[in-house]
Amino acid sequence: MSEVVLETKDLSMVFPDGTQALKNVTLTIKKGELVSIIGPSGAGKSTFMRSLNMLNKPTDGQIVFEGENVLKARGKQLRQIRRRIGMVFQHFNLIKRSPTYQNVLHGRLGYMPSLKGGLGRFSEEDTRQALEILRRVGLEDQAFKRADELSGGQQQRVGIARAIAQTPSLLLADEPIASLDPSSSENVMTYLKNVCQEDGLTSIVNLHQVDFAKKFAHRIIGIKAGEVVFDGSPKELTEGITNHLYYSK
Amino acid sequence: MRPYIDKKNKMTQQIYLGLFIIFFIFSLLQVGILDERIFQAFSRVENLLKGMVPPAISEPIDVAGAAVESLQVAVMGTLWGVVFSIVLAMFAAKNVSPHISISYAVKAFAAFVRAVPALIWALLFIVAIGLGPTPGILALAVNSIGMLMKVYAEAIEEIDTGIIDALKATGASQFQVVMQGIIPSIMSIFISWSIFRFDINIRYAAVLGVVGAGGIGWELVRASRVMAYDEVLGITLVIFGMILLAELVTRFLKDRADMATLKAME
C-alpha cells in the first residue's frame, strides 16, 4: 500500500479566457487507494481529472504517473500512458451504434497496432476477456445488443467494463453517477467499488454527492475554486467542512 | 418600438416586391418570351412530333451498351466521390482535423469544387484526357466530393466530443478513433447521403454524354444530328426507364437504411 502511483506537483491550469481552474494542486495517490474528490460544480474536479490523462493540458506543474512525466509525453508514449489509465465518464460516452461487447473491446485499442485496431480485428483472447468482464458487471445477456438499447445504469456499467478491459493501474471516474437515478447510482457505485477491490485497482472518483463519496472511498479530497481544501479519511470529513466546501464563499 | 419595427419590415417588403416586379417586366421586354416565332413554331413542332412517333431504336445493342455505360459512370463516379469525400471530411471537420487552418483550406476547396457545375468539370476533363467515360467518371467524382465532403464533415462535427475523448483515453490512435468511433457514429447519415448523391449522379451521367463524356447522352446527340427524331424519342424513353429503375433501387436502399435508423431509435 505504499507504492506511489500518481503524483501531481503544483498543478495549475488557466483557461484561455483567464479563468483559473486549478491552483497548485499537489497530491500523492498510493497504490490500492480509493479516492473520492468532492466539491461544488465548477470547482475544478473534472479539469483535474482530465489533466491526468491529458484530455486537457494543464498550464503549469507536473504529473508523474508510475514514474513517467505525463505532461512531457507525446504520441506513442502518451498513448501508452493513457492505456494504463481507465476512464469512466458522466455521459458514458459509448459508441451508441456499436454492440456492447465491441464497446468493451475498445478498451484494448491502446494495446493493438493502429491498423489492426482501427479495422476492429480484435483477437479471440481479447473478445473472450471482454465477455468475461461483461459478466462481472452483470451484463452478459446484453453483450450483443447495441449500446443505446441499454438503460443508463447499464450503459455506465459498460463504461466501467471498457475501462477495466484496459487492465489499468489507475481508474478515473468523472461524475459516474451524476446523470443516473438514485437506484442506478447505488448499483453502479457498488459495481465500481467491487471491481476496484477485486482487482486491487487504484481509483479516483469525482462525485458531488458527499454520502456516496463517504461510502465509496478510503480517502476524500475536497476541492474548492481549484484548490485542495480538504484531504483526509471519510471520518474526518465533518459537517462543518462539507458546509465550508459547498456553501461558504 | 413594436409598431415602428412592423412598419419598417413592411416597407422593406414593399421595396423588394417593387424591385422584383420591375426586373420581371424588364426581362419580359428584353428576352421577349411572347415572340411571334412561338406562334410560327406550331407547324415545325407538328413535323417534329410526327417524326418522333412511333419511337424507334435502330441499333438496340449500341443503345443498351451506352445505357449500361451511363450506369457505370454513375456508379464509379459516386464510388470515387464517396471514398475521397470520407477521407477529406476527416481533415475538414473541425473536431478531428489536425489543425484548424487545414479544416478551412479543405472546406474552401470543397466550396470551389461545388460551385463549378458537373458539366463544366466534364468539359475540362475531356480537354485533359479525351473523349470517353473516364472524364465523365472524374467529373462526377469531383462534383460529388464538393457536396459529400461538406455533409460528411458536418455530420462529424455534430457527433458528441465525449466519444472522441473516451477513445483517446483508452490510448487509441487517431486512425483508431476515426475507424472505431467516428465512422460507426455517422454511418446512417453517411449511407443516406451517399445514396442521395448516387441518385443525382445517375441523372448527370445521362446528360454528360451530350458533351462527349461517354454514356447514353452521346447516342441522343448522334440521333438528333441526323434528324432521326423517332430515335431521339426512343433513346429518351430508355433514359427515362433507366432513371426510373435507379430511383426504385435507391428508394429501396433508402428505406432499408431508414429501417436501420428506426430500429436504432427504439
Describe the protein in words.
- The complex is a heterodimer of chains A (249) and B (266).
- In chain A, helix 7 links the parallel strand 7 (170-174) and strand 8.
- The mean pLDDT of chain A is 90.
- In chain A, the strands form two sheets. A six-stranded mixed beta sheet of chain A has the order 6-7-8-3-9-10, sandwiched between helices. In chain A, strands 2-1-4-5 form a four-stranded antiparallel beta sheet, with helices on one face.
- Chain A has helices at residues 45-52, 75-82, 100-105, 114-118, 124-136, 152-165, 182-199, 210-216, 239-246; strands spanning 4-14, 20-30, 34-38, 60-65, 68-69, 85-88, 170-174, 202-207, 219-224, 227-232.
- Chain A is of the alpha/beta class.
- Chain A is globular, with a radius of gyration of 18 Å.
- Chain A is built from nine helices and ten strands.
- Chain A starts with a strand and ends with a helix.
- Chain A folds into two domains: 1-75 and 171-181 and 203-249, 3-Layer(aba) Sandwich (Rossmann fold); 85-167, Rossmann fold, CATH 3.40.50.300.
- In chain A, helix 6 runs parallel beside helix 7.
- In chain A, 35% of the residues lie in helices and 25% in strands.
- Chain B has 266 residues and is mostly helical.
- Chain B has two domains: 2-41; 59-265, MetI-like fold (Orthogonal Bundle).
- Chain B contains ten helices and no strands.
- Chain B has helices at residues 2-31, 36-52, 60-92, 100-115, 118-129, 133-158, 161-169, 174-208, 216-225, 229-265.
- In chain B, helix 3 packs antiparallel against helix 4, helix 3 (60-92) packs parallel to helix 6 (133-158) and helix 6 crosses helix 8.
- Chain B is globular and about 75 Å long.
- Chain B starts with a helix and ends with a helix.
- Chain A binds chain B through residues 50, 53, 55, 79-87, 89, 91, 93-98, 106-112, 114-115, 117-120, 146, 148-149, 159, 162, 166, and chain B through 160, 162-163, 165-173, 175-176, 178-181, 184-185, 187-188, 264, 266.
- Chain B: It comes from Salipaludibacillus aurantiacus.
- Chain B: Belongs to the binding-protein-dependent transport system permease family.
- Chain B: This is Phosphonate transport system permease protein.
- Chain B: One of its GO terms (cellular component) is plasma membrane.
- Chain B: It is a multi-pass membrane protein.
